[in-house]
């Protein structure tokens, strides 16, 4: 029936949105290096969309980060089941094999991927490090030393027979020649006779001095703190008064020094195999070439710099990221659109990165300047994702400055660009918080309810908690005490499900105060204690979640820990417990 068909399409559409939300959430966790949570998100997404090769490859990457190469290999092989030439799957399988120590097979898959996409630097590096690991594992022919040991009686027997023949020849020469020639013949005989090794006085072969493979800089990086020990032993070895051959003690010290150096050289070889440096060293030298080489391929250099800037900001290195972004921006501004493809998009991204760095450094005016440049450039070139990102960041700057109405206006313009329920939940919540700050309680309540619906659609309990608390606070301020009590009860249940004890205690106290007002027949008054205990300032609450939205390229720091909102409540509880104990002691 038509109705059933429509319901099926709706369910399929909703399922696809849920998969997209879980995938975005997983990507966010990967970005902030919470790999176990990322695995959980991708696993849920794969339960809804079996065989999603992108989810499988990213989960494989997470397994590798956690040291589980076996599971990483399983996911990579599953991603290649339908598409044998899936380049990300080939690369991930090769990496998993390399981590498992199967360097030969890893080399095969690195080569297979390189044949399909020869321009990818990761595959070239994979080939180089696999070849180096193989060489370090099997060694080189020059390192094999043959020794004359074991049962050599066969050779000695053959030697005795040869000696006997030489003796007979010597006797014949003696009878044929004079005494003077006899001496010459004797000399020739002794010279041509094959001597038994044991016939001469046995001389002990001197032990060779250990030699380290590679230059000193590479060895230093491989050994780390042990490199100081290596330098000390080498210095000790040059001191002939301690490592000479004059006394047994000196020889013993010399052998001990050799043992230590051989051990350190073997450790360096082992770490070179586990973490090859040749490929990275060569690529690093290439990346540090002159500006002439950079000008030949400026796009790869700029994109690599953008990745470094994003990584610095994710690690909280805002000043460092700011300097890099300003340097790259200066270079991009000096290039034309013909020289650099997507120049406008790259400049907008740099404006955004600089604005975020200034925001986290509390320089709001400079942050506003660059986010406005980002927005202006995005509108000029019709870059929807960049425009959404710029509006998002501008709203956060206004909220942090206390310009709540401007923040509302900016975020309201962004609402139609929302690409996921999770993003909508955050937007409505922040708009509601701004209305609450402006004492616009009805608007705050309405936006809180919209945030709650979006959070339920996204199936995100954390944002359900934020939204339900906002609704309850707005209802209390608006004098809707019965509705506020119901909202607080819903918030309390969510806090229990999340096992957030601090939030649970604060909500319980707020609920008790609302119920007390209902019993006393009170309406809304000027008491703001309930709101103060669980209030979050707009532009900060849960803002780290924004990264999971499509179109947002920066990680946004904020007070994401809900426990911060209840710190005052905890202190009050401790004070009350202390008073009760003092009262008991007094009695």
From TrEMBL:
Keywords from the named record: Cell projection, Cytoplasm, Cytoskeleton, Repeat, TPR repeat
Compartment(s) where it occurs, according to its Swiss-Prot or TrEMBL record: Cytoplasm, Cytoskeleton, Cilium axoneme
Biased composition (Polar residues): 172-184
Membrane-spanning residues: none
The protein's name in its UniProt record: Outer dynein arm-docking complex subunit 4
Superkingdom of origin organism: Eukaryota
Chief place of localization: cytoplasm
GO cellular component: a single term: axoneme
Originating species: Mytilus galloprovincialis (Mediterranean mussel)
Gene3D superfamilies: Tetratricopeptide repeat domain
